Amino acid sequence: MSGTKIAYELSPEWMETFLSTVPREADREAAERIVGLFRERGLPVKSKSYDMACMAGTFRILCFVKKSREAVILNNRGMGRPGFSVQLRIENPRAFERLDGLSPNIRGQILRARDCGYCQPNCEGKRYAFAYQGAEYVKCRAFSVNFFLENFESEDIQSLMELVRGEVG
């Protein structure tokens, strides 16, 4: 791919480089715990950096549940966000049944996530639809726009890991 370099194995050195670009302690802890879970389960973890001038210093860690299906992407910055963010694919619908058990910050970000606008032909019949406290929610299932979680505090990490474990199995 032009403008992109991909390392198929996430080395300890690359992980340190990534973490050194994430200023907030809770964000670094979240990244380490997510990568640790995927490694513990023997699942693929890849890294990506960009060599385009406009993307200099932007790094991503891609965590896969299958050979070519990401469940989590960690972004040190960029991707439409000013700082560290976690892109989370929530395939397990039971996650929406347990929103009350999540930290207020994580729960709020899920509820405020982009609504489904049927932006892709394959969206029909595959959107996330759930109810929470009497309100109906329909969220976008496209991984590139669905759940971007950010601005973590230490009390959010347990909730984040609960959601990630639900996807890893």
Folded structure, characterized:
The protein is of the alpha+beta class and 169 residues long. The protein has one domain. Strands 1-2-3-4-5-8 form a 6-stranded antiparallel sheet. The protein is built from 4 helices and 8 strands, in the order βααββββαβββα. The two termini are 32 Å apart.
Q: What tags apply to this protein structure?
A:
six-stranded antiparallel β-sheet, 169 residues
Compute the separation of the termini in Å.
32 Å
Rg measurement, Å: 16 Å
What is the β-strand count? 8
> Main sheet?
6 strands, antiparallel
Order of helices and strands: EHHEEEEHEEEH
- The percentage helix is 25-40%
Query: What would the average pLDDT be, to the nearest integer?
Result: 86
Shape: globular
Number of helices: 4
**How are strands sequenced across the largest beta sheet?**
1-2-3-4-5-8
- The chain-level structural class is alpha+beta
In total, how many domains does the architecture comprise? 1
Low-confidence stretches: none
Strand content: 25-35%
